[in-house]
Amino acid sequence: MRHWPLFALRVTTPRLELRLPTLDDLDALADRAAEGVHEPGGMPFGVPWTDAPPDERARSTVQIHFRQWGTWSPDNWSCSFVVAWEGQIVGTQGMAGRDFAYTGEISTGSWLGLRFQDKGIGTEMRAAVLHLAFAGLGARHATSSAFVDNPRSLAVSRKLGYRDDGIEVHRRRDGAAQQQRVRLAREDWTARAGFEIHGLDPCLPLFGLPPRA
Description:
The chain is globular and about 50 Å long. The protein has one domain: 3-Layer(aba) Sandwich (Aminopeptidase). It has helices at residues 23-35, 54-71, 100-103, 121-136, 151-159; strands spanning 10-12, 16-19, 76-85, 88-98, 105-112, 141-147, 163-172, 175-185, 196-198. By secondary structure, the protein is of the alpha+beta class. Helix 1 packs across helix 2. A hairpin with a 2-residue loop joins strand 3 and strand 4. One of its GO terms (molecular function) is transferase activity. This is Succinyl-CoA transferase. Residues 16-189 form the N-acetyltransferase domain. It comes from Microbispora amethystogenes.
């Protein structure tokens, strides 16, 4: 699509492909949301969208992608990829930037279908968007956060070289919960073999960056 080249942007790793979703991909991703993203009783998200019934979780999963596409601007963008593994859509990995051309900073967020967890996919898909951010977009920092009772997410961050960046307190459901911020500087990032970016050059202006000469 000439006027929306993001649909051709892909990041591939030894096991995964990250891409902006087609409508069929969104259907599959919505199925993952309906099936479940975390164990009952837990809540890894600040907005408790997984408390909704399965059909509402599925619908909101589709809608958030439409909202992100419709509000995208070079100064404020959210790029949510679907993650394909062994021919299946297994989750989503997002990357966002506000005034990225000036700050050089991106933030990430993700979720993975419950039945696809504990396979190393979460680490590999985060590493994929870090490769896009640092090797492709020239980012200087990547940030993330997780509630302190979400050790899996924090373990992924620390495995990839992030350092603690302070604590925040947020409302979660009807209480308060501590959230650990983490930050990865470009000089602490380690490139991985077998990670490739496809179709980036036409997308650069949409990320607030000048086209390559």
